[in-house]
Specification:
The structure is a single chain. The protein is globular. A ten-stranded mixed β-sheet has the order 1-2-3-5-4-6-7-10-11-12, with helices on both faces. A two-stranded antiparallel ribbon has the order 8-9. It has helices spanning 41-47, 116-120, 126-131, 154-157, 168-186, 195-208, 221-232, 253-275, 278-281, 287-303, 315-319, 328-342, 372-383, 392-405, 410-414, 451-460, 485-494, 508-511, and strands spanning 54-55, 65-72, 82-90, 100-105, 132-137, 214-220, 237-245, 306-308, 311-313, 438-445, 464-473, 502-505. 35% of the residues lie in helices and 14% in strands. Strand 6, helix 7 and strand 7 form a beta-alpha-beta unit. It has 532 residues and is α/β, with parallel strands linked by helices.
Length: 532
């Protein structure tokens, strides 16, 4: 999923007492102990920037504008190395009703958001677009914002690796190689590609735009980014909608492992749903029979890969499609076609919902490294927290344990990853524990951020309210014609949160109409997704 958050510079390492008197719009909110005393002058180059807005593309719409800002690589050393941050905007359509700016993030880590005002525009209600300048940005290290690269090849990009005793040593070498390549290419930058620093960049964007506060709509990983912003800059957070949420207590290994935990109830639900429609799909008349059909296909593909629409699938490839089971109908169609292929009959492509066409992202005429998405993903996931085990044997033990606990995906989720060999980020993880107001939106059946994850964020943000969409399927709620849309729009336009948590039930049509945030999916079965 990419997946769809000042007093700026401050959690930053510059103590408030060392910063010059600034206007209220740039008064610092958080100021940990400085590493060293600095003069006030280095901050002016950041806080007094004037964005030079221009069309994002020469032939693009005139109201979709882009600019480039400069931020410090290390906020504790504002006079040091700098990064570019690409920012975009579509102005509020009714200046008389304008409330402020709405920053947008699509998820990731590593998801570009520069084009988000353009592709989210049709999904947002008029009342929201009247009141907010829609602000997109590529987070540091991503897309047009000083993109990071590790020089990974195609084999190194593949990190969905099931645990096998015979291949574990190879997996350890892969994880170490990726970490070494990233360190060789971008070692001085990696410690600072963190969610905390992206939150500081967001607050600098707020400052440069001249806003006292910022409102925010973040999806998936973007919910964690938004939560970190509220923790670091609580007085600057206005109206925050956190959609399809990451549990701050699980970052980031636990969030990958929750994919396996969440897949088991989704699989069980799918077997029940499909058994009730045996006449249509011919996969089994009872849930147990449907499950047996699936696992028989996995075993057959392990013996000899199945040619599925031109792609040879092993049993592990089939299990890697665990996300498809969150869409019961889509999974039944896909597995029925896989069964036909396994029997030697030609298979038709399973029907997939057609997503709204997305505009071509603005290029700024700057090429982005081919591995940027993956490089940025590891950079943030590994540097954000120091909780990654360092002993490869810990990963082996966990993978063996979790394959038993969660047969569909447990060994994938707990196998070794490059973070085992990553150097620490510049700071420890942020503990999210505040009473800042926010609205958490969550589908009941979300493959990338399962329901338990959304509930975890809600617990950490004690001032939040949560809307749970029962029977809601897919990753991304707001903008999908969900039963939660009305509540989110009311909050964004009035600032009033519901008096209590809410639940609403998706209609059958709504249940298959999630926003479907753009996640990379390789050929073969649907559901092989590896982002937040």
């Amino acid at each position: 999923m990419r997946s769809r958050r000042t007093a700026p510079l401050v959690a930053l390492g510059a103590a408030a007492a060392l910063v010059p008197a600034l206007t209220p719009a740039v008064a610092f909110a958080e100021a940990p102990a400085p590493r060293r005393a600095i003069s006030a002058d280095p901050w002016k180059q950041y806080t007094q920037q004037k964005p030079h807005w221009k069309r994002c593309e020469a032939a693009g719409p005139a109201n979709f504008q882009c600019a480039t800002l400069t931020v410090p690589l290390d906020y504790a050393r504002p006079g040091g190395k700098k990064l570019r941050i690409a920012v975009s905007r579509i102005k509020a359509t009714d200046p008389r009703k304008r409330h402020g700016v709405l920053l947008l993030n699509p998820g990731g880590p590593g998801g570009p958001g520069l084009d988000m005002p353009q592709w989210m525009g049709p999904e947002l209600p008029t009342a929201v677009k009247e009141r907010y300048d829609l602000i997109g940005f590529d987070p540091r290290g991503v897309g047009q914002s000083s993109p990071v690269t590790c020089g990974m090849n195609d084999e190194e990009l593949n990190w969905q690796r099931p645990y096998k005793a015979a291949t574990f040593a190879k997996d350890v070498r892969w994880a170490r190689t990726v970490a070494d390549k990233c360190r060789a290419k971008a070692g001085d930058v990696l410690p600072h590609l963190t969610t905390r620093n992206t939150a500081r960049d967001m607050d600098l964007i707020r400052t440069v735009l001249g806003e006292r506060k910022v409102s925010y709509l973040g999806y998936s990983y973007g919910t964690y980014l938004g939560a970190v912003y509220t923790q670091m800059f609580p007085q600057r957070a206005d109206r925050f909608v956190l959609d399809s949420a990451v549990d701050p207590q699980r970052i980031w290994r636990g969030m990958i492992q929750v994919w396996a935990e969440g897949a088991e109830p989704a699989f069980k639900r799918w077997t029940t749903w499909t058994a009730e429609r045996h006449a249509t799909y011919q996969l089994g008349a009872t849930p147990a029979a449907v499950g047996k059909t699936f696992w028989d296909l996995v075993a057959q593909a392990d013996r000899k890969p199945i040619d599925f629409q031109g792609t040879l699938l092993s049993g592990d490839d089939i299990r890697a499609g665990r996300a498809m089971f969150f869409d019961a109908k889509g999974a039944a169609e896909a597995i029925a076609e896989l069964k036909k292929a396994a029997e030697g009959a030609p298979s038709a492509a399973p029907s997939r919902r057609s997503a709204s066409p997305r505009p071509v992202p603005p290029s700024f005429a700057r090429a982005v490294p081919a591995d940027n998405g993956e490089a940025a993903f590891w950079s943030v996931a590994c540097a954000d927290t120091r909780a990654w085990p360092r002993d490869p044997e810990q990963y082996r033990r966990d993978a063996i344990r979790d394959k038993v606990r969660y047969p569909l995906y447990g060994d994938f989720a707990s196998n070794i990853l490059p973070c085992a060999f990553w150097k620490n980020g510049s700071e420890p993880a942020t503990k999210v524990d505040n009473r800042v107001g926010a609205l958490v939106l969550q589908n009941e059946w979300d493959s990338q951020t399962p329901l338990v994850s959304g509930q975890g964020l809600h617990r950490s943000m004690k001032g939040s309210r949560m809307v749970t969409v029962l029977d809601g399927q897919g990753h991304g709620v707001y903008g999908s014609k969900s039963c939660a849309d009305k509540t989110a729009t009311a909050y964004l336009t009035t600032g009033r949160l519901p008096a209590a948590d809410l639940t609403c039930r998706a209609t059958p049509a709504q249940a298959r109409n999630s926003l479907d945030l753009p996640l990379p999916t390789p050929p073969g079965l649907p559901g092989r997704q590896d982002r937040f």
